[in-house]
């Protein structure tokens, strides 16, 4: 993969570190899957709390302009209940509340497994599941792919995690939002937009969403989670970066978080820590 990236002149130019200080810094973390429950397979649920605490402490030292959590903050007990998941969310969001800068949450499928979207948003004190905002000279978009293909919102155990979509109403909103901005744009979504729609981790309408992003001519990069791997590819001049999960493994070496530097010319640099250090985007 890295050999292919090195051969891409466009990618190399877009990701070349600009001189001077970055125009904006962003903290990135995803797939915490925190739950007060014993490990299952490769997922070490309880250890996500101290790992998140360590990442938050580092972000407070580095002082990014904001921190983006890219979905699946919590997980479930073997017999899931809304009350237990609400408590897990309260506990883990309490760690994020220590941040000395703004924070944003992308909805992941596990965020609304037993909970509803309004419950999740209320606990996290976030008004909407998809929205946009400006910071400095950049525009940021948070997408919600936690819909079934028939357009029904995830919640209350009503979905299969492989049935994920960004419905037409949200795609229309995205088209209008990108048309209205003149700023270079970064997009965040939990489920993946860069793989074929028949793959389990993919959004059904991924190709339609990618078309909206590409036709805008404004999107620099898309950050995703969900797959619990580091991955990168470029499609239609847009960088799609998938970040590894916090859950899985114990201790500092098994943590996973990054600092993204954005420069005035649209170039960027990803500095990954622990498992994120091996992200292909961080190695360019």
Judging by the overall fold, what is the CATH architecture? 4-Layer Sandwich
Strand order of the largest sheet: 4-5-6-7-9-8
| The CATH homology group name | Metallo-dependent phosphatases
Mean pLDDT: 93
Strand-and-helix sequence, N→C?
HHEHEHEHEEHEHEEEEEH
Largest sheet data: 6 strands, mixed
Number of helices: 8
Gyration radius, in Å: 18 Å
As a percent range, the share of strand residues is: 15-25%
Helix content: 25-40%
Question: What name does CATH use for the topology?
Answer: Purple Acid Phosphatase, chain A, domain 2
Shape descriptor: globular
Low-confidence stretches: 1-14
In the CATH scheme, the class would be Alpha Beta
Task: Write down how many β-strands occur, each being a DSSP E stretch of 2 or more residues.
Answer: 11
C-alpha end-to-end distance: 11 Å
Structural class of the helix and strand makeup?
Answer: alpha/beta
| Domain tally | 1
